[in-house]
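queue> pop job 88
queue> type: inverse folding (structure -> sequence)
queue> payload:
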């Protein structure tokens, strides 16, 4: 201002659904605050993050959909039981962190709900990883259809993107704000089963067990040398310490989030490791002659990494790969020329675009052809490409069948020719 006085200003900025919001608090004239605190060094002790949290309600949230007073209706949409309204993120104005924690708590319930759908609606079973896990080590899991390993014809492998989503989900935001069909893999699983596929649902983000960190006892501060008598110095330190503590406690947040550490799941500590592990222990051992893979976003990167590690095996067993807004990069991942050529023939990437569905797009790299997913929203690319992906798989399966038949006829003809020659002799 005109008097050149300084103020402490705290602002928070966040984005939700394309809208930006900002809260600004002018807390105090810093010049006056300096005098009142009797020392500017005290200001540096204020935890500004915690200052903004001081009026937050406790982070205690419902444990079930019913307790949240939400349920999925007949169209798979999440609706409030009493009002019929969609989920409201801002349950409490100006408490973004609390609202976010509430949203995450609901997300964990959604994860368990989708697991139940996989088991009860799709009749899939959970397979623990690692396969030789001991009782005292962290584990993950995938889901298998009853014929995933025994189906002699076709196997579909589903790989999701990165983030909070777990097995059976494409996007949590779609499940909560749109519907189950667009946000989960359930429609893909049901369609695949109807068309005679075995199905494997991977879980590439289940990489660790989160445990609470043990609390550390604070180390005693070293004694400073001073000319003051010990009793006087002690009274002075107590007085200053009490003053600082009272000021700090006035604004501190009583809710301290528990500090945690992550224990990685053996051989499944990342999406790439998980996909490779599942390939080695399940997909490569499946009876299916034709394996089809669908991978979204970071799942595409994990698939390309699998090709880097198991190129010949993948080429021999995989028939076709459908990618949706894949995050792979053949240059950064250093793929071979032979891998790039194979991807040109066997892969297709449905990407977010304003163009209509299936319209070919300009290639960005010499790998797989790119076509429009018919949407500009990244998380919707899988759902919008649903029918196109299964047509793509069917065309490849029919082509494989024709080639197998031609090979069989050729062998039969050669065998008959040799038989006739033998009879003539």
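queue> result:
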């Amino acid at each position: 201002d005109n008097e050149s006085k300084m103020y402490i200003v705290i602002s928070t900025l966040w984005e939700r659904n394309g809208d930006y919001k900002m809260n600004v608090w002018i807390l105090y004239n810093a010049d006056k605050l300096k005098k009142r605190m009797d020392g500017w060094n005290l200001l540096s002790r204020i935890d500004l993050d915690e200052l903004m949290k001081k009026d937050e309600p406790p982070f205690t949230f419902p444990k079930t959909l019913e307790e949240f007073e939400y349920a999925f209706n007949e169209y798979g949409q999440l609706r409030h039981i009493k009002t019929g309204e969609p989920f409201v993120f801002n349950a409490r104005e100006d408490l973004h962190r609390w609202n976010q924690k509430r949203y995450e708590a609901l997300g964990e319930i959604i994860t368990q709900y989708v697991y139940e759908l996989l088991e009860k609606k799709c009749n899939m079973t959970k397979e623990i990883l690692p396969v030789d896990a001991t009782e005292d080590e962290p584990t993950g899991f995938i889901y298998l259809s009853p014929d995933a390993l025994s189906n002699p014809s076709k196997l579909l492998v589903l790989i999701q993107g990165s983030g909070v989503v777990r097995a059976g989900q494409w996007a949590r935001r779609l499940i909560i704000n749109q519907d189950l069909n667009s946000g989960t893999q359930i429609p893909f699983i049901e369609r695949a089963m109807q068309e005679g596929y075995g199905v494997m649902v991977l879980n590439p983000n289940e990489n660790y067990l989160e445990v609470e960190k043990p609390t550390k006892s604070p180390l005693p501060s070293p004694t400073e040398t001073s000319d003051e008598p010990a009793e006087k110095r002690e009274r002075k330190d107590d007085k200053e310490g009490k003053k600082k503590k009272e000021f700090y406690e006035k604004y501190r947040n009583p809710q301290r989030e528990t500090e945690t550490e992550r224990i990685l799941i053996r051989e499944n500590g990342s999406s790439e490791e998980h996909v490779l592990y599942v390939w080695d222990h399940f997909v490569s051992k499946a009876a299916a002659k034709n394996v089809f893979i669908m991978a979204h976003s970071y799942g595409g990167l994990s698939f390309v990494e699998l090709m880097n590690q198991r190129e010949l095996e993948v080429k021999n067993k995989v028939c076709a790969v459908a990618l949706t807004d894949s995050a792979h990069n053949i240059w950064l991942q250093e793929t071979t020329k032979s891998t790039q050529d194979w991807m040109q023939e066997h892969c297709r990437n449905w990407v977010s675009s304003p163009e209509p569905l299936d319209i070919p797009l300009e290639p960005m790299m010499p790998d797989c052809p790119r076509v429009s997913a018919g949407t500009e929203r990244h998380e919707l690319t899988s759902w919008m490409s649903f029918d196109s992906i299964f047509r793509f798989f069917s065309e490849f399966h029919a082509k494989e069948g024709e080639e197998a038949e031609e090979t069989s006829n050729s062998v039969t003809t050669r065998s008959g020719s040799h038989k006739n020659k033998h009879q003539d002799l």
